Amino acid sequence: MIEIKNVHKSFGPLEVLKGVDLTVEKGEVVSVIGGSGSGKSTLLTCINGLEPINSGKILVDGTEVHAKSTDLNKLRRKIGIVFQQFNAFPHLTVLENVTLAPRKVLGMAKGEAEAIAVKQLNHVGLGDKLKVYPGRLSGGQQQRMAIARALAMNPAYMLFDEVTSALDPQLVGEVLDTLKLLADEGMTMICVTHEMGFARDVSNRVAFFHKGILAEVAAPKEFFGAPQHPETQKFLASVR
Ligand code: ADP
Ligand code: MG
What we know:
Blueprint: E1 2-11, E2 14-24, E3 29-34, H1 40-47, E4 55-60, E5 63-64, H2 72-77, E6 79-82, H3 94-104, H4 110-123, H5 139-151, E7 157-161, H6 169-184, E8 188-192, H7 196-202, E9 205-210, E10 213-218, H8 220-225, H9 230-239
Parallel strand pairs: 3-8, 3-9, 6-7, 7-8
Antiparallel strand pairs: 1-2, 1-4, 4-5, 9-10
Helix pairs in contact: 3-4, 3-5, 4-5, 5-6
C-alpha cells in the first residue's frame, strides 16, 4: 500500500503540500480532484521520489520513499506513472517504445521484452499498431501506448496525472475505458483527473485537494452526494 503521512513540500517560499495524509490500500482506486495549482501533480511526483519532500513520510509497501537508504530506481519500478503530456521516442516504433525500459532498465532480452510489450499493447487495444511510429497515432492511442509502456515494467501501482486533459473530447472515452479496465483487474491506482464521471463510477474513494491539503476524502457516493467541506461543494458546483 501507499501511505502518505503529514507530507509538507515547498518550492522555495511556496508551500505546496501543507500536511497531506492519505493511505491507498492494495487494489484501491483513488481519484484526486481539485483546482489548477492545488498541488495534485506535486503529490504524484513526491510519491515516486521524483521530488524531495520537506517533512512527513511517504511509504510504499513499507519502504520510505525519501529515506537516504532507499534504492529509488528499484522503488520506481513498482510505480508506473503516466502524464498528461505524452513523451514517446518519435524515431522508434510503438513496439520499440514499449520494449525500451524493460530492456534498458530491467536488462531483459529482446524476445522476452517484445513478448511483454505485445501483451500489454494488446491489453490497451493497440495490438495492430506495433510497427507504427508514434506520430501516426491519435492522441488517445498515444496515451494508451504510454499506459502500455508503464505496464510493461509490471508495476504494483499506477499513478495517472490528468491523462485525458490534453485530448480531443471524442478521444477521452477510449483512454478512460483503459483506466477502467485496469481498475477492474485490481490495479492499485491514484488518478488525478477532471473527469467527474470517472471519479464517481470507477474510484473507491475521491480526494479533494484544496490549498495544499486533502480537504475531503470519501467514497464517491458520499463525496458527490453529500460533500461536507464548503470548498468541495463550491468545486463540484463549478464543474457540473
Ligand atoms: P496541480 O497539478 O494541482 O495543477 P502542481 O502540483 O503542478 O498543481 O503545482 C502546485 C504549485 O506548485 C503551483 O503553484 C506551481 O506553480 C508550483 N510548482 C510546481 N512545480 C514547481 C517547480 N518545479 N518549481 C516551482 N514551483 C512549482
Ligand atoms: Mg497538475
